[in-house]
Amino acid sequence: MKMLRATLWIAACLIAWSGVATAADEAKAEAKAEKKASDALYVGVKKCKMCHKSEKGGAQFRIWSESKHANAYKELASEKAMEIAKEKGIEDPQKADECLACHVTGHGEPAEMFKSTFVAEDGVGCESCHGAGSKYMKKKTMQGIRDETLKAEDYGLVVPTQETCDKCHNEKATGGKHVDFKEASEKIAHPIPEGYKRGAAAGDEKEEGEGEE
Length: 213
Ligand code: HEC
Ligand code: HEC
Ligand code: HEC
Ligand code: HEC
Known about the structure:
By secondary structure, the protein is mostly helical. Helices cover 46% and strands 0% of the residues.
């Protein structure tokens, strides 16, 4: 009798304990999911270049590097920049928050959000519009997002909208102009060619040079 009672008591404890454990696990899993996208780090354009440089795949890196966005930090050292800065009493635009805010990726975010591969010289890089890349940049993840088996937002990949451009192209911008998302996106377009499938063409994988610079 005593033995049975003790056994029942232990069983009851185990059941209660497992309930606590499940609740705790659930809370942990939830916190983890929330953290997943939000603790993504900026990796810099060189990381994206590894997989987005081939002409067959749409040469996103080349197209970006020929755009003004790629030059946005360097532009802050131009004569025109110095003129604008002088009027505002700013000595060095490349060191001033008032200018860097829109001429560099992620300016103002905490220092621990930037990997050592990130450099300000890249100006308005891929991650200015697509979000910090450390969580989505794995090949399997990227392919999953492309194939819609994974959700972009779970990995911090931003699908650009009007709001994305408004962060910088607003009334406070140099020139004070808003841009229309559709029209302005066409000017910087870097699409994946229709029907392109990575690895489908011979030598495609090699050309991408994944994993190395
Ligand atoms: C290890 C390789 C790899 C790296 C690094 C990488 N990507 Fe990708 N990315 C891919 C693949 C594979 C696809 C699927 C389409 C394709 O094959 O081009 C893709 C697709 C995308 C897409 C389209 C997603 C969609 O919904 O269609 C975007 C946007 C993108 N990448 C941005 C980036 C950015 C920004 C970086 C740098 C932070 C980056 N990628 C780094 C491999 C990579
Ligand atoms: C709110 C965002 C924002 C801030 C802050 C900002 N810029 Fe700009 N800047 C832009 C945008 C957007 C453009 C592109 C404007 C266009 O082409 O319509 C630009 C363009 C420029 C250009 C090129 C202009 C040309 O005519 O070719 C220079 C130079 C420049 N900015 C300097 C500065 C300096 C210096 C500061 C700091 C005093 C600064 N910017 C602050 C958003 C900003
Ligand atoms: C100024 C903002 C901006 C920057 C910087 C930028 N992109 Fe994009 N990217 C966009 C927009 C806008 C689209 C189109 C989204 C759409 O079609 O809805 C896009 C689409 C893409 C696509 C998917 C194209 C497709 O056909 O589905 C890839 C891949 C991509 N970008 C990679 C990159 C890479 C890599 C870089 C840096 C080398 C980069 N982007 C820099 C705004 C940007
Ligand atoms: C982080 C700030 C930032 C964001 C976000 C941003 N831009 Fe820009 N954009 C700039 C700056 C700064 C310049 C001017 C760079 C220069 O002249 O040196 C610029 C220039 C441009 C230009 C001038 C033409 C050219 O040849 O590049 C176009 C077009 C443009 N942006 C479109 C867009 C679109 C579309 C989006 C949203 C999908 C966008 N930008 C998001 C900061 C930004």
